[in-house]
Amino acid sequence: MTNRVEGRPLEEAELIELAKDGDVQAYGELVTRYRELAFRTAFLITRSAADAEDAAQDAFVKAYYALERFRARDSFRPWILRIVSNEAKNRLRSARRREGLALRAAEDRRSGDAAPSPEAAAIEVETKEALLRALGGLKENDRLIIAYRYFLELSEAETASALGIRPGTVKSRLFRALDRLRDRLPAERDSREPLEATDE
Amino acid sequence: MSDRMTRAEVERSLIALGSSLEYPPAPPIAPAVTARLLAERGYGVENVDATVIAQAPALAPHLDSIQETLARHLGLPKDSVSIKAKSPDGLGAVGRMEGIAAQATVLLSRKDPT
Fold first, then answer.
1. How many domains in chain B?
2. Is residue B50 part of a domain?
3. Using one digit for the tens of pLDDT, what is the confidence trace for A139-189?
4. Domain contains B10
5. What is the pLDDT of residues A124-146, one digit of tens each?
6. Number of CB pairs < 8 Å for A and B?
7. b/e per residue B8-39 (b: at least 16 CB within 10 A)
8. pLDDT at B101 over 50
9. Residue A128 within any structural domain of the chain
10. If you count Cβ atoms within 10 Å of the first and of the last residue's Cβ in chain B, which end, N or C, has fewer?
11. A41: domain range?
């Protein structure tokens, strides 16, 4: 395929140039670097591991054939995330409707295990569950902008690219989504309290 | 939480939640993608002979499932994929457990034009 200097990992720009020249092996290295982020992005949309895998795979194949249109001065990460997001949304449209977020927070660690990060330890299990339920009830655009920014930790520019919106609108859309999430949190709490009272 | 959380509190909680979320394990997408790209050029993967070099963990107990997973993603029968594990015996970056290395030889065949 290509003569490489043994032992030196290739820079992303080099891999892209090689892939543009038809080097499938170089492209495979790019796929490996982004597979986890791509899979998680697709999973947040499809809420199915099998659909997320198919969407990520199809997206990487499509991206390979679209590499000619990729501009060297741009960042590959938001570009591939946009393609993954579109593939995942297409797949979701053909799948049956799924409720909720299909994610759950890790169990609190018992003594003897590694301590949770300060961030993870900062909120109660009850709050995590309420947040996940409230997120699952939001419309897709609100749910995704929150998940991209806070769960995948995408920058505003990356979030804009993945959602196909202008970078200048990310902040305002995010604020509106956060407000709608806040609106749902007390409602979630109120709707749960009678059930707990009945169980007791 | 009977009082409405502030936006800042929600943001802090989301960051904390994000660090504790559990996702399904990401599958090895690259083998399937490269196999599809090669197939579209008229090449098919006949077999794979791979060696994983790692100081730790011990891979021997996992070789069978690695072989099965790789074969499934490449669309090959299991016996067309060979996986071996080798120890670097403490040498180099892999020996210092700074990473894991893999080498693979893949036999491609040109399909007859249809």
1. 1
2. yes
3. 988 999 999 999 989 999 889 988 889 988 999 999 999 999 998 885 444
4. no
5. 777 788 888 899 889 988 999 99
6. 123
7. ebbbbbbbbbbbbbebeebbbbbbbbbbbbbe
8. yes
9. yes
10. C
11. 10-96
- The residues, ordered by sequence, that sit 6+ positions from A110 with a Cβ below 8 Å of its Cβ are none
CA distances from A155 to A126, A189, A194 (A): 28, 31, 40
Which of A52, A151, A189 is the closest to B18 by Cβ? A151
In contact, A42 and A51? CB cutoff 8 Å: yes
Q: Both tokens of residue A55?
A: 């969407």
Residue A54 domain-assigned (yes or no): yes
User: What is chain A's mean pLDDT, rounded?
Assistant: 80
Q: How many CB atoms lie within 10 A of CB A138?
A: 19
ipTM for the predicted complex comes to 0.70
Separation of CA B78 from chain center? 16
A184: domain CATH number is: 1.10.10.10
Q: Specify if B102 maps to a domain.
A: yes
Nearest to A44 by CA among B13, B15, B23, B30: B23
Please compute the mean of the pLDDT values over residues A33-57 and round it to a whole number.
Answer: 92
Is B57 domain-assigned? yes
Degrees, nearest 5: CA angle B58-B59-B61? 100
Looking at the complex, report in whole angstroms how far the Cα of residue B2 sits from the nearest Cα belonging to chain A: 6
